[in-house]
Amino acid sequence: MADPSPPNQIVIFGASGDLTRRKLIPALAALEGRELDEADFSVLGVARREKSDESFRAELAIDVPEELRPAYHRLAPRIHYQAADASDVDSMRALGARLDELPGGPDAGRLFYLSLKPDLFGPTVEALAECGLLAMREQETQSWRRVVIEKPFGRDLESARALNEHLHRWLREDQIYRIDHYLGKETVQNLLGLRFHNAIFEPLWNRHHVELVQITVAEDIGVERGRGGYYDDTGALRDMLQNHMLQVLSLVAMEPPASLAPEAVRSQKVELLRALRCADPQHVDEISVRARYGAGANGEAAYVDEEGVAFGSQTETFIAVRAEIDNWRWSGVPFLLRHGKRMAKRFTEVQVQFRTPPIQLFNRPDGLSADEYHRRLREGSLCEIRPNVLTVSLQPREAIRLSFGVKQPGASMVMAPAALDFDYREHFGKAPADAYERLLLDALHGDQTLFLRGDEIEASWRYADEVLEGWQGGPAPPLLEYPAGSWGPSEADALFHGCEGGWSRG
Questions:
Q1: What is the 8-class DSSP label of residue 173?
Q2: Whether domain 8-150 has CATH 3.40.50.720
């Protein structure tokens, strides 16, 4: 009988931060006893300030949700703390000695989670490597060493490449887990199942049947909790479109993988991102709109008046882009991406809008002859409602909705809208697990499917950089303003052409 594997060690750098308290520890508590047994792992929090294990546990307990408190109390004895600074060799060596003392010792698998400022990613990995804490044999299944890196991964293509090169001096690609928490959402993962498991969708998932796709990430909050300084140096394009939104787009539009093996899925995502048509900087004003929120009717502060925002700031809090993909499946189909803060409603969704039938038989306006009706349809002055739209809601509701037309009761052939609706909570009797639960579990198991590969990051930045370059020169689109609590600038509506419709309102 084989000896049982030693317990793993989860080492969280930046353990005093908000992410550790609000997401990582609650996720580990939720996994406690359900997906992970007591003997599976211990946790070591790392930050610069000195504190005891007991005080660290007490700090973490404050933010644990009520329903997770029993699980947290079981987990707490296995949570430890070590003060360390990546720039101090002695403290990093002390960290290594502390890990050797924890259950599993040097034979434990170690997951280093870097919940740090981006400029500390490289130096921390280098310090760990120089202290011998990252060395492992290829294909190691027991004493493995993995590093999870939070976003932002660079602020442009050049810095992303530099960070990749720095990490690759010390780590193999299969040891690097670049995390995007959107990919841990159950409904985002279900995009693959929806497409490739259901024969009613996959044959239609192409330019012949899809008129357009729109992806919206709308937030009703601004830059509260002191985030103004960070956000003002980032903006909506870097903060949301370059990572979360392009990741969702890649899952919506990628080609079928040969299998669900991590590299098969990730390779198809990379190919899709490389097929994104880069914006010509001289014409970026034709395919993008940028704006920031002004004061709201209910007393909301304007972005420029938020704490930490620099005087004369030109940072956008809203972006809308009309993107195109140059490949066989999607050529000519627009992908409309929109993100904004301080909007009228919080929701994230994908809408796949199918083309109308070739001949319009129903709902002809009264008083129009057949010839006039068809002439106006051809020229685009009369727009028929698109009856078939597939909506995948990612938050706050996780659901799938398919609209279609049915005949109204009565003598006339008048079609009315109807819908098929699926809700995760209603169907399964519980809310989907938090994204960090799935991602932490996958990282512990060595499954990189939902983590980003180095070339995937670079492909995303290639597209984002072209838009940024256009904004910084040439006929750049003006920085518009929209009232806080509204649906954003009306100019974004012009990204829809002809009878394509308009932005979803959730």
A1: G
A2: yes
